[in-house]
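Researcher: Please translate sequence to C-alpha cells.
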Amino acid sequence: MKTKLLAVLSASLLSLSGPALAQSAPRALGQSEVQQAAQQHPQLVEQFGGAVEGPLADYVAGVGRRVAAQTNLVNASGAYRVTLLNSPVRNAFAVPGGYVYVTRELLALMNSEDELAFVLGHEMGHVTARHGQKRQTRSTITGIGAVIAQVLTGSDVVGQVAGQVGQGLLLGYSRSQENESDSLGVRYISAAGFDPYAAPRMLSAMGAAESLDAQLAGRQQSQTPSWSRTHPLSTDRVQRTRALAGQQRPPGIAAPQSRDRFLAAIDGMTYGDDPRQGIVDGRQFRHPGLRFKFTAPQGYTIENGAAAVTIAGSGGQAQFGTGRLSGGLDAYVGQVFRSLSSNGGQLALPATQTTTINGMPVAYATTRASANRSQVDVTVTAYRWDADSAYHFVTIVPAGAGVGPFRETINSLAPMSASEAAAVRRRVIDVVTVQRGDTARSLAARMAFSDNQLDRFLVLNGLDANATLQPGSKVKLIVYGS
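Model: Translation complete:
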C-alpha cells in the first residue's frame, strides 16, 4: 500500500471460434487505442503493485516478443508491450492498445516457458480479435471508490460493478471469445516454436489452483480477482485446447530446455504478498515497513491494493489509507470527505468527535447518504500517526449501524514493534533438484506454510496426487526468503 488516499482506475480488460480464425490481411492498432493504453498504463501498473523490473521482466517480455511476431498485426513483434506486475493475485489481461500484463503470482503457477507463451498468446488473441471493442466499454472503480460513487450518484450500475471489483479490472468474456483467444493462442505459440500442449496444461493448472483456493477459503482470505474470474475456466476448454494442440502436432515430450529456462528465471521470485507493500495473514494486515497492523472482522476479505487496503463483507465495506497531516485531525477528516466527494457528488461534512485508540489521538465523523435506494452511514476515522502523517478508515454500513462490524477493526489499529516487523518475512520460489529418496510429501514438508503443504506443492508443480518424482528433475518450493 502506498501513501495515497483513494485511487480510481479507468481501463478495460480484454480476452475465441471458427470463422474468426480465418487469416486476414495484417492490421495496425488504432492510434487512439495505443494512446489511451499508454495514458492508462502508469495508473494501472500502480494499482497492481508496480512493475517488476530486471532480468525476470526482460525474460517475460522476450517470450512475449516471440509470440507477438506470429500475431496478425502490422509490425507485430513491436506492436505489443508486455509488463510483469508485482501483484500477489493470479491474473493476466490486455487492453486494446496492445499492452499485455501478467502478474508474478500467475507466473509462479507456470512450469515452463511454453505455458508463459500460451498465456501471453491468449491475451494477444483478445487484442487481434478486437474483443475489447466488441464488448461494451466501461470504466470500473476499485474497492470502496465504487461504493462511494454509487452513494453520490445513486447509480445502481455503479453499485453492481462495486460488488465485483476488488484489486483489478473486471470485464468478463463470452464463451466464444474465450474459445477464439484459446485457438489464437495455440496457433501463435505453435508457430513460434513453443509446445501447443502447454495450453491444456496451463488451463488445468489454473483449474487446480482455483479448486485449492476454494478448499482454503474457510481458513484464510482468498486472493481475488483471479484469472478465472475474467476468463472463466471449464473442463471443456482443457479438452478443446488439447484437440487444437493435436492439430498442430502429435503429442510428445515437451522440450526440457523450456522448463529449465523458465524455472531458472523465476528462481528466487517473491511469492504471495510483498512485505514492502504489506501482507495479509488471515484476518490480520501487517505492514512491516510502515510499522502498523490491524485486524478485519471475522468472515471479511482483505484486498491489498497499491493505493489502499479494502475490507469487504456482508455487513459493509471499509478502506484504509494514509495522507499528510496539516492543520490537525479535524481538517484531515474533512479532507478525506472532500476526496470522497470528488468521485461524483457531494457528501455532507459532519462535525468531528475525538477519542484515543491505542495511545493515538483519533478524530471521527459520520454522515448519512443514499445508496441503491437505501440509506447508509459513511464514517471517516483518522489517527494521528506522527507529526506529519495520519492514517484513516472509511467505512460504509447500513444506516443506523454506526461503524457496524468495523468497530473491532477501528480499535485494532496499532503500531508494530521492531521485533514484530522483523518477524515478517517474504516467501520466495526456490527451485530444487529432486534427490534419490525424495517424495512429494517429503519435499512439501519444506514449504513455508503451516497447512495443506502437500496440496500446495502438487498444485504449484502441476502434479497429480500419485505423481512419482524422478531424481535429477527440478521442482518448485515456497520457502522464506532473506
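Researcher: Any highlights?
Model: The two ends are 21 Å apart (CA to CA).
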